[in-house]
Design brief:
The protein contains 19 helices and 14 strands. With about 425 residues, the chain is an alpha/beta fold. It has two domains: about 160 residues, 3-Layer(aba) Sandwich (D-Maltodextrin-Binding Protein, domain 2); about 200 residues, Periplasmic binding protein-like II (D-Maltodextrin-Binding Protein, domain 2), CATH 3.40.190.10.
């Protein structure tokens, strides 16, 4: 029996439609990164796949996980690729089955397990399975105002340890000058610098409780001694911090990851080009030993949403963005972050002096050096809860002496235990 002509026609149309790949839906958490990924889609189309298309949509940093949760619950409108910060990543580890595609075999086959910084790849790993590709090294540094350091006769080499920092800060406090701005993230940054973390591999919260108490007491001491201040809105990630405390010279330095300087400082203080320097974090001296000169905080990665119908295309594009020489250089030079891709550490464009920040070494050279010292971050389903409870409650209550560091952390530990029990 012959197939009617009109049926054959629509059959052909149906097959063609199935063969034509739809544009990938890529969700990004900032408008700066939106422009970057649109340019990456163009580069990929030019160099790899002339038929490649992508719709890049930007959501707010905190709005992104909420948007993804809604897509998961309604099973509609989700992305193919999503850019998530490591802090939010933990919120999607609660279910027995990850909502993201397991990339372990693909990563190993492509050799990325050897070419991505191991301490950063582990951030997006859960139960020995890899779910995301890290974009940034996220190594912590101390950004400082060169003009104010010169005015107060302070040299970066004078700040080798936190004891040195306190001594210089005490002198400044006598003159009515605060040395550094504090942020709730500083607690976990210092905790990791001292060899601990919010969680250990067994899933214990604040596994070294006494060290956590001692760390929070020390940070509170910086505030009480007027060596450091809390910004008006309680955070160094707000534009008002730059228009207020930074512009007015209320502080001389601020701790931040590579992306903090490359993105936020350049974005919110563009008029201060050339006035900023950078240096390693002062190190901790404990038990007669000097610890690492850096720590780490936050940093984004690329993940494939499990509902995607184009997993292979997603991974091919992600691998390109993470490994391509031009893509890595552009990410650094355009003011995003320092890459986590180890071969990029040799790119002369990344290692040359930066036109916004200056120092004895280039920023790239120092970050390559510090990359050998960054600590591991242990992911956990309750880490987002802990991070935001510290940010919204614990840290401010301690800094303003509403509660003691020990009592605050006992309360926090109990809260995290109860939250885990309800899971």
């Amino acid at each position: 029996m012959k197939t009617p002509l009109f049926i054959s026609f629509w059959l052909v149309i149906s097959i063609v439609q199935q063969l034509v790949a739809k544009p990938l839906e890529i969700w990004i958490s900032s408008y700066t990164d939106k422009a970057y990924y649109e340019s990456m889609a163009e580069l990929y189309q030019k160099q790899v796949d002339k038929d490649f298309e992508a719709n890049v949509t930007a959501y707010g940093f905190a709005e992104m996980p909420d948007k993804l949760m809604v897509a998961m619950k309604t099973r509609t409108g989700g992305p193919d690729i999503v850019q998530l910060d490591e802090v939010f990543y933990g919120a999607f580890l609660r279910d027995k089955e990850s909502p993201f595609v397991d990339l372990t075999d693909r990563v190993k086959k492509s050799g990325l397990d050897k070419k991505l910084h191991p301490k950063r790849l582990s951030v997006f790993t859960w139960k020995d399975r890899i779910y995301g590709l890290p974009q940034s090294l996220s190594a912590m540094m101390l950004y400082y105002r060169k003009d104010l350091f010169k005015q107060h006769d302070i040299k970066p080499e004078d700040l080798k340890t936190w004891d040195d920092f306190e001594q210089v800060g005490a002198g400044l406090a006598q003159e009515g000058q605060r040395f550094m701005a504090l942020d709730p993230s500083f607690f976990e940054v210092v905790l990791r610098q001292r060899g601990s973390d919010l969680y250990n591999r067994k899933g214990d919260f604040l596994p070294d409780f006494e060290k956590a108490v001692e760390t929070l007491e020390w940070i509170q001491g910086l505030s009480k001694k007027e060596i450091a201040l809390m910004p008006d809105r309680g955070t160094i990630f707000d534009p008002v911090f730059f228009s207020g405390d930074v512009d007015s010279g209320e502080i001389l330095c601020v701790p931040g990851a590579d992306w903090y300087g490359l993105d936020l400082i350049q974005q919110f203080a563009p008029h201060m080009k050339g006035e900023w320097g950078f240096m390693p974090l002062p190190a901790w001296e404990e038990d007669g030993k000097t610890g690492p000169r850096t720590s780490t905080f936050a940093g984004q990665g690329l993940l494939i949403y499990k509902a995607s119908k184009s997993v292979n295309r997603c991974y091919d594009f992600m691998e390109f963005v993470i490994t391509d020489k031009e893509a890595n250089a552009k990410r650094f030079l355009d003011g995003n972050s320092f890459p986590a891709y180890l071969p990029a550490f040799k790119d002369e464009r990344i290692l040359k002096p930066h036109d916004f920040f200056t120092g004895k070494k280039s920023m790239g050279e120092l970050l390559v050096e510090l990359s050998r010292e960054i600590p591991e971050v242990i992911p956990h389903p309750k880490r987002p809860n802990a991070v935001f409870t510290i940010r919204e409650n614990t840290f401010a209550n301690v800094m303003y002496e509403v509660i003691t560091p020990r009592a605050a952390l006992k309360e926090l530990k109990k809260l995290m235990a109860n939250a885990r029990d309800r899971e």
